[in-house]
Amino acid sequence: MPIVPFTQLPDSARIWVFGCDRPLIGAPADTLLASVDQFLSEWRAHGIPLKCARDWRDDRFLAVGVDVNEENASGCSIDGLFRTLQQLERVIGSRLVGGGRVFY
């Protein structure tokens, strides 16, 4: 299923927000977003494609959403998202997953 614009997700969408430990611009941000887009274009739950979107804000915040009215993300599919982001942390040289950061 293709990735949709974030604004096309319904209010009932399930959303995850990941905060980067430093602003990410240029090549690292491009790498992050290209990898996330690749993952989301193939994201499935129990073999069913997920209608999903992502948004990148303020050079620091990645939001990923799933339209649960179409199909909900399963535990294994969510684990896949987190594993992908954890692998990207080494590539981009910044942390996205894990606690301890307060932004507001």
Overview of this structure, please?
Strands 1-5-4 form a 3-stranded antiparallel beta sheet, with helices on one face. The chain is α+β, with helices and mostly antiparallel strands and 104 residues long. 32% of the residues lie in helices and 21% in strands. It has 2 helices and 5 strands; from the N terminus they run βαββββα. β4 and β5 form a beta hairpin. The termini are far apart. The protein has a single domain, classed as 2-Layer Sandwich (GMP Synthetase, Chain A, domain 3), CATH 3.30.300. The longest helix is centred in the C-terminal third of the chain and has 18 residues.
Q: Topology, please?
A:
Blueprint: E1 14-19, H1 27-41, E2 44-45, E3 48-49, E4 52-57, E5 61-66, H2 75-92
Antiparallel strand pairs: 1-5, 2-3, 4-5
Helix pairs in contact: 1-2
Provide the residue-averaged pLDDT: 93
- Secondary structure class reads alpha+beta
Number of helices: 2
The percent of residues in helical segments reads 25-40%
Write a brief caption for the model.
The protein has 104 residues and is an alpha+beta fold.
